[in-house]
Amino acid sequence: MMKIKSTLILLTLLISVSLVAQDSFVRSTVIDPPSTYPSGFGATVSGVDLDGDGKLEIYSVDGMTDFMTGDEIPQIIKYERNGTSWDSVWAASFPNERQNTWAALTVGDLDGDGKQEIIWGFTNSFSVIQLLQELLFLKQMAMMCLVLVMVLAILPQTLNGI
Predict the structure, then answer these.
(1) 74 phi, psi to nearest 5 deg
(2) Residues in a beta bridge with 48
(3) Helix (H) or strand (E) segment spanning residue 71
(4) Which residue pairs from 31-34 have beta carbons closer than 8 angstroms and sit at least 24 positions apart in sequence?
(5) Terminus-to-terminus CA distance in the chain, angstroms?
(6) With a threshold of 0.85, does the pTM exceed it?
(7) pLDDT in tens, 39-74
């Protein structure tokens, strides 16, 4: 009986705390994704100050949830806190034809200088698939040329025998 009573008290406490906590979150700002991000934001790194200017920064890549909407071009954008708003500081595209999933985004010390850098890279690429398709096409064309050469080599002998 004591176990049931303790469980009910604990459950009541947890439910009441969660109900009160729901009203305590206040959204201070909404950042709309740029028009070049048709599917919205993807991976995001926030709450950092990588350039050391004392302003909080947000880095985000495009969402890549649809194909052929422009999202397949890997993009990154940097926002910086300016008082009560977030300003878009810069944006860039990855020098790659296409991606087919969210780009990887994190922070780390790449060059060992003790300072954090943004680490960004695409995870998959249509260009690899396209290259494989082109190689397969070239192989098929080479096989067809070989067959044609063999036919042309045999055809005169066959025609002479008729």
Answers:
(1) -65, 125
(2) 57
(3) none
(4) 31/58, 31/79, 31/86, 33/60, 33/62, 33/63, 34/77, 34/88, 34/91
(5) 105
(6) no
(7) 778 888 999 999 999 999 999 988 765 555 555 677
